[in-house]
Amino acid sequence: MQDMELQMDYYRNQRPSVGPPSSAAEPSPPSPVANSNWYGYTEPLQPTSSGKSTRGSDDSISLSIPVEEQSYLLEAYLDNIHEGIPIFINSHFLSDCRNLVYSHDLILTIVVITAKLTGYVFTTATFDIDSCIDEILSAGSLEEEMFGNSPSIDQFRKSCLLAFYEFHQFPGRQAWMRIGKLTRMAMWTGLDRLEIIKSKYPSWRTMTERQLEEWRLIWWCIYRLDSYANLSSGTPYLIDETLAYTSLLQEVPGRAPIEDQHDSVHENFLLSSHHNSLWGAISIISSQSREISSFNFHIITTTLLRAAVRAIRVHSLQQQPEVRCLDDIERHLSAVRLSLPTNYLNTRRNAFSNETGPDHHARLVTLFHLNLVQFLLSVINCYRREQDDEWILRWQRVYEACQDLASISEQWNSSHNLRVDPAISMIIFAALIFLDVHKKSASALVWGSHSSIEHSERVLMMQLEQLATIWTLPRLLTRMFAP
Fold first, then answer.
1. 88: helix, coil or strand?
2. Rounded to two decimals, what is the model's pTM?
3. Which of 175, 223, 445, 460 has the fewest CB atoms found within 10 Å of its own CB?
4. Residue 145 in domain
């Protein structure tokens, strides 16, 4: 054991501080090409004679997809899927596609996965889309094994998209391992300490603020993947947010080099500086644009959820657990709720503030997170050995939390199912389990709440079934309640 620890210390000290690859540099405008389409591609994506997926010269998947269909699917990706796994800066994605900023392999992956999730039927292509996605997942896994010390930002983007897709479409150990591998590669590359390496290495120092924001975005997407992958499996998180030194997303649209920016701006957005006072970060985030603040609020509520699950894990492993850590989380949750903007906790769309449908549903996801924290705390508090009347009150809080989760589902619009992270399926599943327990308990008969429980169950189940029309994960969860 001591030898193993010495080896781990050695490798930890050997961890490289690498600069970004050349693909992260500011792209030069492409030269005009005759007969180019809206996105700059002059012909379909490397057509093959058979129309089936094959290996290209760059070891990527090559398919025959007409440029018009590529253009349509890229726009469909931005309108539907991107919000669930935001690996690009939304306002720049389409213009960057026009300027050929992204790798051919990444664009192809986006196009194929978008076609699969949206049910798009190609008019001319003859390949089997399911077989193609299987090959993309296999090829992507092999590429991730051979990343080297300096993977490009497009390689990270593709790996994030594939990990997200596999976790929800093919849930299991392999998908969990893929997220773990991606998380470790991000830390090996230094994405968890961008505010440090940006001032030490020339390749990072010469980047514009927008380019650094793109790397920050990748890091926080991986943070989200690490969060729900390990939450669902009951395993410790790989990322320790208290040690991360990469700021949340900001709004610095200029192209000035990093050395011209003030480090104090980034200090205010460090999650590690606010991990015990997330309400302090909320006041800063609230002043941002809706797109940026929505993403950062998602990170804040995810972090609070991580803290709650970590405290519960410690609590459950101790023979004589201390309840102070759980009380601290509950106080933290209360402070976060009170620091949120006006009407943020409103489950309905805030029409007077011009909140759009997609923005509303992005906010509903964070409300799911907050209510799940309360739900988990209420469940674990039921294990406290107290008088019967105290236990009944704690058991009632579990039911209240389930009702609150159902009230969020009541405002759900199925047209936005693709725009949100389908990991909320696991939250809905947990609420359904405890509603079923409540319905079968004697307390439901005494309180006369049987019909209310059935209504909450029906609402949550219908939302889960809507998500199941797209994703395998909720489809498997619904089968747990099949008669």
1. coil
2. 0.85
3. 445
4. yes
